[in-house]
Amino acid sequence: MTEAAMASDRVTSGAGRIAKKIDLVPLVMMLLVISILAPVAVLVYGALTSNPIGAAFSGLTLENFVEVLTNPTYQRAFFNTVYVGVAATAMAALLGIPLAWIVVRSDVPFANLLRVGIMIPFFLSPFVGALAWTLLLQRNVGPVNLVLTSLGLGQISPYSARMIIFVMGIYYAPYIFIFVSSALRNMDPALEEAGHLSGLNRRQVITQITVPLIAPAALSGVLLTFMASAGQFGVPALLGMQDRFFVLTTYIYQLINRFPAEYNVAAALGIEMLVIACAGIWLQNRITRNRSYTTMTGKGFRPRIIELGPMRWLAFAFVIAFVVVGALLPLGMLLWVSLVPYYDATFSLSAVSPIHYLKIFNQAFVWRGLKNTLFLACAGASIAVILAVISNWIILRSNTSYRKPLGYLLFLPAAVPHIVLSLALLWTYVFVPLPIYGTIWILLIAYVTSYITQAVRNVGSNYVQIDKSLEEAATMVGAARLRTWIEVTLPLLKPGMVGAWTLLFIIFVRELSASILLYSPGNEVLPVLMFNMWGEGDWGGIGALAMIQVLMMGAVIALSGLLFRVDISRAS
Amino acid sequence: MSFLKVDNLIKTYGAFHAVDNVSIDVERGKVCSFLGPSGCGKTTTLRCIAGLEQADSGRISLGGRTLFDSEKRIAVPPEERDLGMVFQSYALWPHKTIEANLSLGLRIKGLPSGEIRDRVNEMLELVGMAGTGNRFPASLSGGQQQRVALARAMALRPKCILFDEPLSNLDLLLRERMRFEIRDLLVKIGITAVYVTHDQTEAMVISDHIVVLNKGKIQREGSPSDVYNYPRDRFTAEFLGRTNIVALDRKNSNPGAGIVTAANGVRFSSLDAKRLEDRSETGEFVIAFRPETMLVTDEPTGGQNCIPATVVSSQFLGGTTQIVLDIGQGVHVTAILLGDQSRTENTQAFVSVDPRHVLVLRDSSAATPMAGTPALRVPEPA
Ligand SMILES: Nc1ncnc2c1ncn2[C@@H]1O[C@H](COP(=O)(O)OP(=O)(O)O)[C@@H](O)[C@H]1O
Ligand SMILES: [Mg+2]
């Protein structure tokens, strides 16, 4: 073989490799475009027509938007959404920021235990929290109301805007906690020490150095919380619909479940929510642009501990109070109602019976719900993590021109409230002649699409910590792309992948906002079963299902901790 | 006949030319350094050779085999180029033992396991790390990791080995020792190597051939002593060690006769006319001489180029004495003398410059002085 012929061999082998690399990108892009952009486009179309869902194309109209913007009931729902979102976020921040500071920076006793306690409400989810607090505040029999009456105070009703804010505030506080505590941990203590040496006193160091440094991270957490609470369905459904207090999510649910369903108006409301969410994202980008001072360096500074003296016990009490209100009381209450045949405000161990557990396990739909939930959580988490690894590789390591648009595209789902996305998927798959609508697959698509941003970010924060030259070094000793992945990238990424998988599993096990519009008989998941049982007032069944849910999450957290040493309470 | 050949390599990022028409020839078994300030394109050039980056145009060949040719659309993937590489961060795989770090490439190549074991041990022995095979990289010191990285790069017996600032993460003492170790090792194995650094001493110790890069372009290349002693432009002179720069009076100079006059009237004669770069009529030129080629005395030496001067400052630095002198009209030059030769400020002295070391250089823009080797500030005459 001549030199020239060999050279041309090289060309083909080289070019073949390049072509293979690029093939992956449009494939992933197409998949993401189909699953992200197409539904939103269909939703916009739905909002711009008065055609019933699934009907052929006809003229466009703005009447749905006019209706949504001028009708006082819709205006009210819009206002309520913003009100509840802002108030719940403020409460979550007022809880989460001090909690983070106490656990990371002060000499509070049992800090590590407290950190885990603070994360429990996050795992429980706002929906389960709202269920528990409905029980705790039941008229005349709720334990909290019993205590209040015995103290001579009036009873509190669980059905009010204030309780919605309270519950969301408690259950979103861990979100803010995660952001702020990781920012505090990643801050170089020398920055504060330099402040002291420049003559700033303790208060000035906090206000002029610490606060500005963690502000971008805290703000990101705050805006994320706002978008999550504005997109919350379970809490306002449980605590608001009773007294006809509607937010946009519950209104969309209403419009679709009433007869005849008003899909077009619901779509317009969905677009309205999308606009709120985009405003949130835009604000976040504006405020935190080029200002993420405490990037994930993975350096792991040892935070400078501030001694509180006797005040540390006050701080301890504050954290314990949060854990009691957010975790211990709700868990205890749900456990108790699941263990007694009928809850009657007495707490006698002789009443304990496994009747609710026997009952639910005798019902085929519960088994089906369990199986569906497990399948969706496992499959959803796996698919999302795989997509996230590939996407991150494209964004961080490839040199295609698709990198930027892909980054934006993957960010988009974070801007689409889950109920809006499921509404959009509903529209889409009624049109698309694929056997997806009315099956479990539409739920899988909804889960993965809703949380792909989270997965990409999670895996990405681990991927950026892997020095690029570790992969290049494998290439230099002869490893081709796949071999490099197997030998270097995936092993190093494993903790990050397991962490992301575990987090997604937990999120999917308790997912309600997207499931509620998309499930169909036979495809129920646990939270949907609980929501339906709530409609029937079957508290014993709810308690039992909640315990099963807690067990499932606990098992996965323990497994990932034991097998892979992943500390999920530090994942974000 | 050159072994590694780079022709007209160009690499741009947008409108920015990171590598601007670079051509390099490295002979078989020789060590070539790319030397230049941070951001001058050293790493990019090296990565183009490695294939980790694809150049826009140009040709690269190794031992007669084309690795890259933009016209023929050849781009051999990096893993098939037969090159070893030592990364700045070492890039030892933290999840693999030292043994596994060294053997991965051998396993991919499909060598029998006995041979792999022998080769790994041989390599570890070579870099003085025998017996560490079962340990993980994190348990090694920086210098040890450096050695393992070198062993890994050589394990496949590549045709050429590439280094990207491999010593920059080590402390000064270790760095100075490793320079000699790497040089000795490379000479012992007789492997062809390309070595990227921004440290001129490192480049001088390690290489047979130095390529000075600035803003993506080759500024000067040659043997270490040639590049150091006879730079052709101000950038190279100032980047490689310290140098005195004095403005040139071109009208009263006659480079052909070995005579040049500084703008302040000082004449230098008996110069080596071959070394005077005043051939072309265009461009700015300056007179340059290195501080260590100077002599400072109380009385005129009677030799050539003995200039009366005033001591501006004098500082004993331990091994050497640094004296700043005014050689007329406010033109300051610095002399570096061996041992303690301190002088009192504002006293008279005589400066002699070895005529062989007085150069006339193209004033190729002011070089960006490197940390650690501050350029001497030479004020223009008033
Ligand atoms: N991926 C890239 N995108 C844009 N500019 C780059 C990229 N890589 C390097 N550069 C620029 O190219 C120039 C040369 O970089 P490099 O080769 O790394 O310099 P050095 O000589 O310090 O190794 C620098 O100005 C750098 O900013
Ligand atoms: Mg470099």
UniProtKB/TrEMBL annotation, chain A:
Residues 78-284, 370-560 form the ABC transmembrane type-1 domain. The lineage of its organism: Bacteria, Pseudomonadati, Pseudomonadota, Alphaproteobacteria, Hyphomicrobiales. This is ABC transporter substrate-binding protein. The chain crosses the membrane at residues 27-48, 82-104, 116-136, 163-184, 205-228, 263-283, 313-339, 374-396, 408-430, 436-453, 498-519, 539-564. The keyword Membrane applies. Signal peptide: none annotated. It comes from the Bacteria. Keywords: Cell inner membrane, Cell membrane, Membrane, Transmembrane, Transmembrane helix, Transport. It comes from Nitratireductor aestuarii. One of its GO terms (cellular component) is plasma membrane. GO terms for biological process: transmembrane transport. Belongs to the binding-protein-dependent transport system permease family. It is found in: Cell inner membrane; Cell membrane. It is a multi-pass membrane protein. SUPFAM superfamilies: MetI-like. Pfam families: BPD_transp_1.
TrEMBL record, chain B:
One of its GO terms (cellular component) is ATP-binding cassette (ABC) transporter complex, substrate-binding subunit-containing. Keywords: ATP-binding, Cell membrane, Membrane, Nucleotide-binding, Translocase, Transport. InterPro entries: AAA+_ATPase, ABC_transporter-like_ATP-bd, ABC_transporter-like_CS, ABC_transpr_MalK/UgpC-like, Mo/tungstate-bd_C_term_dom, P-loop_NTPase, Transp-assoc_OB_typ2. One of its GO terms (molecular function) is transmembrane transporter activity. Residues 4-240 form the ABC transporter domain. One of its GO terms (biological process) is quaternary ammonium group transport. The keyword Isomerase does not apply. Belongs to the ABC transporter superfamily. This is ABC transporter ATP-binding protein. The lineage of its organism: Bacteria, Pseudomonadati, Pseudomonadota, Alphaproteobacteria, Hyphomicrobiales.
